[in-house]
Amino acid sequence: MHSTTAVRRFPVPLAGLGILLLAWTGLAAIYPSILVPSPLAVLRALGLLARQGRLWHELGITILRLLIAFSAGAGMGIALGLLAGRSQLLAGLLQPWMSVAAGVPPIAWLALALVWFGTGSLVPIAVALLAATPAIFVATLEGMRAIDRDLLAMARVFGLRGTVLLREFYLPALTPHLLSGLAVGATLTVRVGVMGEFLASDTGVGSAMALARSQLDTAQVVAWLLVALSLLLGAEGLLLRPLARRAAAWRLEV
Amino acid sequence: MLRLERVSKAYGPNAVLKDFSLTVGEREIVCLLGPSGCGKTTLLNLCAGLLEPDAGKIYRPDGRPGYVFQDPRLLPWRTAEENLALGLRAQRLTTSARQRIAAHYLEHLGLASAAHLFPHQLSGGMRQRVALGRAFAIDPGYFLLDEPFKSLDVGLRLQLVRLFLDEWQRRPRPVLFATHDIAEATLAGHRILILEPHPLSVRLELTLDRPPHERQPDDADVLQAQGRLYALLAPPGESSRRQ
């Protein structure tokens, strides 16, 4: 009893992070900095990028691309999931599309996107979109299949339809599924989007990482890696958590 | 008037209703007494338009049905007030008109202090009162009650029947009231139908003369009707032993 309370009070993930930093520092002491740059060197590289303004410039471009990909993916995934939940026929028709989009490795889509779109913003946006949409679609469809039929019948009897039915009934009922779908979708958007930039773009965080790599500036590579990580944390903290908190407010009232 | 004409409904090979006809008068409360699974819910869902009959015709009064289900079926993410006003959202009403109607029924049903609570914060009786208010609020063309007070204790049950009769008295309209409870039926019904399953049919019909809102649970005619219903519904072994 005592030990579990103590564990709960102590921020265990923070300790995990500490151990990670320690291991990193240890490895950096053993290996040359071109293989494993020290945390301090990475911090300096990050500081330099910030002072030069490159950090904000590339970050801005990447955020814009990822936001476009994510909102389009979320919009499409949710809309198609809602429709497929209403119609067995549409669900059957969309199934193979989503399986192909989700099952083909992102790198293969990237190869095709390069052929189709050249090397613009469209490539990272397209591959991120293809990765995020099926995840959000599947979560939405699962939510639709878990809908309480009796509650839906009640809503129908009381005349709810169209946008009122969507706002009063479907969206709140689907919230838990939508949130988990959006969380997975956001993670995929960042991962695949930055990869797309790395391989097929000359702007953005991923492309800056590729440039630093080609210059053998490993400290800067890791600095950009931290920036990409902060994108994930930002999506979680600024987008998904507030959404979850608002949506779950009624559950917390005692 | 609510009328079913030779209505049939089957689930696969099971005929729940077959050539079933029933008329509920403009100012009539018809109570349906019958075993669970005899098709009362199917009958009510047909009347509500939630199910389509396989054959036959259903004539409904103007206006929506005020349906009170067996379980309250409240939206867990909406407050008592919002749940009560749910049906009004489908109508072209101003927000203030909606709030006025909701406030009236919250007050009438003794829910004023619970207006901003969510369903999981309410007791079973309060939840069912919200469900009752939701049906009242839309000023329905007819009422469909599907054993709505089944899970409540006797006192609460009779109190809610009373609240229902008050609302009905304000504006009489056709009511189909499915119930298990003989006391409830004799208190509320102009007519009580004893139903049999496979397919649903009326075994017996009992008419009570005095208007429901004038009756008390311990009035002689109410008790007498209850006695008759108990005798009718008792299994054959019971009645032969008594003779």
List key phrases describing it.
heterodimer; A: 12 helices; B: Rossmann fold; 2 domains; 3-stranded antiparallel beta sheet; 24% strand; disordered C terminus
How would you summarize what this structure contains?
By secondary structure, chain A is mainly alpha-helical. Helices cover 86% and strands 0% of the residues of chain A. Chain B is an alpha/beta fold and 243 residues long.
Task: Tell me the layout of helices and strands.
The complex is a heterodimer of chains A (254) and B (243).
Chain A: H1 2-9, H2 12-30, H3 39-52, H4 54-86, H5 88-103, H6 106-117, H7 122-145, H8 149-157, H9 162-200, H10 205-214, H11 218-247, H12 249-252
Chain B: E1 2-11, E2 14-24, E3 29-33, H1 40-48, E4 55-59, E5 65-68, H2 80-84, H3 86-89, H4 95-108, H5 124-137, E6 142-146, H6 154-170, E7 175-179, H7 182-188, E8 191-196, E9 201-207, H8 220-233, H9 236-242
Helix pairs in contact in B: 4-5, 5-6, 6-7, 7-8
How would you portray this structure in words?
- The complex is a heterodimer of chains A (254) and B (243).
- With 254 residues, chain A is mostly helical.
- Chain A has helices at residues 2-9, 12-30, 39-52, 54-86, 88-103, 106-117, 122-145, 149-157, 162-200, 205-214, 218-247, 249-252.
- In chain A, 86% of the residues lie in helices and 0% in strands.
- In chain A, helix 7 (122-145) packs antiparallel against helix 9 (162-200).
- Chain A is globular.
- With 243 residues, chain B is α/β, with parallel strands linked by helices.
- Chain B is built from 9 helices and 9 strands.
- A 6-stranded mixed β-sheet of chain B has the order 5-6-7-3-8-9, sandwiched between helices.
- Chain B is globular and about 55 Å long.
- Residues 239-243 of chain B have low confidence and may be disordered.
